[in-house]
Amino acid sequence: MDSGKSSGGGRARRNPSKENDGGLPVTGFDQIFAFDKRVRFCALIDEKGNVVSSKSRPNLTSLNPETEDKRLFSQIGLAVLMDRGWDRFFGKTKAIIIAKEKVSILIYSLADLRAVVVAIEPDFPMARIGEIGELIDVCELVDSDIVQESLPEGKAPG
User: Fold this and answer.
1) pTM score, whole prediction
2) Across the strands, what pairs with 98?
3) Where are the domains of the chain?
4) Which CA distances in Å does 127 have to 3, 34, 74, 83, 133?
5) Could you tell me the pLDDT band of residue 65, with boundaries at 50, 70 and 90?
6) CA dist., res. 77 & res. 26, Å (int)
C-alpha cells in the first residue's frame, strides 16, 4: 500500500495556486503528511477501489508486497460501499478504522462513493483520527483537479 508508487499519472497532481515556503506547489496529500510525521501513505480511490492518485512518505519501506495493492484497495472500496447502507440508521460514517499491529488504515468516505485512504503508524493517537477527517474536508484534495477528473460521468461532487 505504501510502496512509493503513484497511480493515476505519476505523482500526486499539484495545485499551483497553493505553494509552500520552498516554492513547490502543495497538494491535499502534502497537507495530510504535514499534519503528523506518523502519516505513511495517502490515496484517493474511486468507488471500485481503483487508485486515482497516491503518495507515500519518502524513505519508508512498504509493509506489503506491491502485488497485493489492487486486492487491498478493492476490499477498501467494497467496505466503503457496504458501509453506506448503514448511514440511514446510524448517520454518516466519520471514518472506517483498521488497526493492525504494524499500521492503522483510516478510510474517509467522500460524498460520491470515493474515499481517501490514510495509512498511519500504529502509535498515532486514535483520539486524533477525526482531525485528519476534518483536514480532508477542507484541504485542497477535495476540490482539486485529481478529484474533478476522477468523477464518474454525470456526477458532481457533493
Assistant:
1) 0.75
2) 105
3) 15-150
4) 27, 18, 27, 21, 12
5) confident
6) 26
CATH architecture classification, 15-150: 2-Layer Sandwich (3.30)
Query: Between 41 and 66, whose confidence is greater?
Result: 41
For 61, half-sphere exposure in the C-beta direction (CA atoms, 13 angstrom radius) is 2
Distance CA 116, CA 110 (A): 7
Which grid coordinates belong to 154? Answer: 454525470
